[in-house]
């Protein structure tokens, strides 16, 4: 079957760095997406990886290893507004997104 | 309209009643999706439409139906609501031809079935 695994919850300190991991097993692979979702709001797109390696976008970076079925989202210089859930999703062979349950990130001052 | 709108924002519904959740986009995206989001679970696809006039079943289609008469609108109907359909429902769209083709989400509808 298809499966996306990510930690349920993580805690980090303002100003620090945090890495959120995601492992996947899917039928086909057409890219991996990271979304941010604040409580009570809709998910918003953060990053996309389709080739192995690191994609950097400001304070956020995302890494992909297709051979390992593994990705991570790296958040630097954490701010209180980064407190949110981070959703990992893989686009399968039918171009549908398979979603992980999300990682709730709690930022402490 | 800017982007994707959903209506209603929230609704409390008696079990057995019929309910239509509305979704309208002005982005001219071909693909549209309906998801439900429940605590502790990932977003689960209910139905999708790759283009106007076509629809398909997702992971959890039972008890739901959709139609796609035009590009902009993609309503989701619960024929006879049950308490297990209590959830937050998100409509999403996806363009094509871009470098990423990410999905864009509407603000969601919070539905409670009693």
Unreliable stretches of chain A: none
Give, in order, the helices and strands of chain A: EEEEEEEEEEE
Note the main sheet of chain B.
Answer: 7 strands, mixed
Helix content of chain B: under 10%
List how many beta strands of chain A DSSP finds.
11
What is the 3D form of chain A?
Answer: globular
Please give the radius of gyration of chain B in angstroms.
13 Å
At a glance:
The complex is a heterodimer of chains A (109) and B (114). With 109 residues, chain A is mostly beta strands.
Notable features of this structure?
heterodimer, A: 109 residues, mainly beta, 11 strands, globular, B: mainly beta, 46% strand
Structure description:
The complex is a heterodimer of chains A (109) and B (114). Chain A has no helices and eleven strands. Chain A has 109 residues and is an all-beta fold. The model of chain A has no long low-confidence stretch (mean pLDDT 96). The relative contact order of chain A is 0.35. Chain A starts with a strand and ends with a strand. Chain A is globular, with a radius of gyration of 13 Å. In chain A, the strands form two sheets. In chain A, strands 2, 4, 5, 9, 10 and 11 form a six-stranded mixed beta sheet that branches. Chain A has a five-stranded antiparallel beta sheet with strand order 1-3-8-7-6, with no helix packed on it. Chain A has strands spanning 3-5, 9-13, 18-25, 32-37, 44-49, 53-57, 60-65, 70-75, 84-91, 97-99, 103-108. Chain B has 114 residues and is an all-beta fold. Helix content of chain B is 0%, strand content 46%. The mean pLDDT of chain B is 94. Classes of the chains: A mainly beta (109), B mainly beta (114). Chain A binds chain B through residues 4, 8, 31, 33, 41-45, 48, 87, 89, 96-102, and chain B through 40-45, 48, 58, 90, 100, 102-108.
